[in-house]
């Protein structure tokens, strides 16, 4: 149930973990509370600490006992495509061929409002089932489909930061628009949804390959005219793509410059992928405070390459995590964290050795930071919304056995990233309301 006023206090009793600071900057960033308490009222965290202390201090609060599981902040997916849920698994193609053959034909189907509604419902459900409570969503090229996305997100509890995807070349005619029309349709959606409930608007040219200078200027006009908009697009994903962009923008110094010249690289910008940046681009991203959304499953599936995390960190570029469905392989931020870990391990000296604390940070607080939402979500600090996911493996599963045997909370977190799946997500809260609850009434049968 969403949108119900909370008059009562609820005291959640659970082992919880969160990263109020960045483990890339602070050694002891992972905070662990065994048998902890989180006091929630009005959807907002009022107090946190050991359960016994909170119980004594708030005897009137209703206790919700979540022991046996692991309570984490709701995940924040900073790059995921709404129209691509049904084309997950188009493997074996590099980016441009994959767009042509796999993604774009499906994206055309969202011109049909009924089709778009069904896809929007599947999409919001899939995110919540995986524990994602905030997402920076690449919308559709069709304004009615984006309107439907916002409506479904608001109904479900999902905080969507999303917008109309705009392009005026090199995709296919059904997906093209003009800068003028893009501006007008975007403006109408901004006026209808930006700041409504949990929803925010992100100006979204698909990528420089499909957006003329005129289109990028229309995007910049929107960013100037409305307060608090976010900006997102793709950058430096694939070597062939970068070559085409260079040819289309002969005056630009590099891929970033195509956005930078239009004034689109700011603290409010999140650029997805950045697998092949040069040093100038990294320096400029850091100087502008723009974030990179790392999508390791997609980078693997499309063979885009190894994300240079160490170079991003050395340059001071903020990095968050995204699933990039459907270039990515699913909606699980646990899987995304594990794949990020794998790909850093495989880079040897060039890689960053990621701990479970890093993975949790990348899947939660780092995303809030990238979206300028860290005052509202991303960890369990007092004053933030209770956006949370309870990992509680079902009986007789492999992860349940690990949970039962784990001798330290750090071990729990590591095992959760190593082998957690959506099946282990027991319950999800968005702004204090239950947005998803797993059915656990079907007992497994083992002869
Ligand atoms: N670049 C432009 N469009 C897309 C897309 O849909 N997916 C990915 N991974 N990269 C893109
Ligand atoms: Zn993408």
TrEMBL record:
A GO cellular-component term linked to this record: cytosol
One annotated GO biological process: guanine catabolic process
GO molecular function (one): zinc ion binding
Recorded catalytic activity of this chain's protein: guanine + H2O + H(+) = xanthine + NH4(+)
Pathway(s) this gene product operates in, as recorded in its UniProt entry: Purine metabolism; guanine degradation; xanthine from guanine: step 1/1
Coiled coil: none
Ranges of residues in domain Aminodeoxyfutalosine deaminase/Imidazolonepropionase-like composite: 36-61
Keyword entries, A-Z: Hydrolase, Metal-binding, Zinc
Domain Amidohydrolase-related: 71-433
Top EC group: hydrolase
Similarity-based family: Belongs to the metallo-dependent hydrolases superfamily. ATZ/TRZ family.
Function: Catalyzes the hydrolytic deamination of guanine, producing xanthine and ammonia.
NCBIfam families assigned to the protein according to its UniProt record, in alphabetical order: guan_deamin, PRK09228.1
Descriptive protein name: Guanine deaminase
């Amino acid at each position: 149930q969403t949108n119900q006023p909370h008059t009562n206090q609820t005291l959640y009793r659970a082992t919880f973990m969160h990263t109020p600071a960045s483990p890339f900057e602070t050694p002891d960033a992972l905070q662990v509370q065994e048998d902890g308490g989180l006091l929630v009222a009005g959807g907002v965290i009022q107090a946190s600490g050991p359960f016994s202390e909170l119980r004594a201090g708030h005897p009137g609060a209703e206790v919700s006992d979540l022991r046996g599981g692991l309570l984490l902040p709701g995940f924040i997916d900073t790059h995921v495509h709404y129209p691509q849920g049904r084309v997950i698994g188009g493997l074996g193609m590099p980016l441009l061929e994959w767009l042509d053959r796999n993604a774009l034909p499906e994206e055309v189907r969202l011109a049909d409002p009924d089709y778009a509604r069904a896809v929007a419902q599947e999409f919001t459900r899939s995110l919540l089932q995986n524990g994602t409570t905030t997402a920076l969503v690449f919308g559709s090229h069709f304004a009615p489909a984006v309107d439907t996305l916002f409506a479904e997100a608001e109904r479900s509890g999902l905080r969507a930061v999303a917008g109309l995807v705009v392009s005026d070349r090199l995709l296919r005619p059904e997906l093209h628009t003009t800068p003028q029309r893009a501006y007008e349709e975007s403006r109408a959606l901004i006026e209808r949804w930006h700041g409504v409930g949990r929803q925010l608007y992100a100006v979204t040219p698909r990528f420089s390959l499909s957006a003329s200078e005129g289109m990028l200027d229309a995007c910049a006009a929107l960013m100037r005219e409305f307060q608090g908009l976010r900006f997102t697009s793709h950058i430096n994903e694939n070597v062939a793509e970068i070559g085409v962009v260079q040819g289309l923008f002969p005056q630009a110094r590099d891929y970033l410059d195509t956005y930078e010249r239009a004034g689109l690289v700011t603290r409010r910008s999140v650029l997805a992928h950045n697998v092949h940046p040069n040093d100038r681009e990294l320096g400029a991203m850091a100087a502008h405070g723009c974030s990179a959304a790392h999508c390791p499953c997609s980078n693997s599936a499309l063979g885009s390459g190894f994300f240079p995390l160490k170079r991003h960190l050395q340059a001071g570029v903020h990095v968050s995590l995204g699933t990039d469905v459907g270039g990515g392989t699913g909606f699980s931020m646990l899987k995304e964290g594990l794949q990020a870990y794998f790909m850093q391990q495989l880079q040897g000296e060039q890689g960053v050795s990621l701990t479970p604390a890093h993975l949790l940070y990348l899947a939660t607080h780092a995303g809030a930071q990238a979206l300028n939402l860290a005052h509202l979500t991303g960890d369990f600090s007092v004053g933030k919304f209770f956006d949370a996911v309870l990992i509680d493996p079902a009986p007789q599963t492999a992860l349940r056995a690990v949970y039962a045997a784990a001798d330290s909370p750090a071990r729990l977190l590591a095992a959760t990233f190593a082998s957690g799946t959506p099946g282990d997500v027991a319950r999800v809260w968005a702004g204090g309301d239950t947005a998803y609850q797993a059915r656990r009434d079907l007992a497994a049968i083992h002869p």
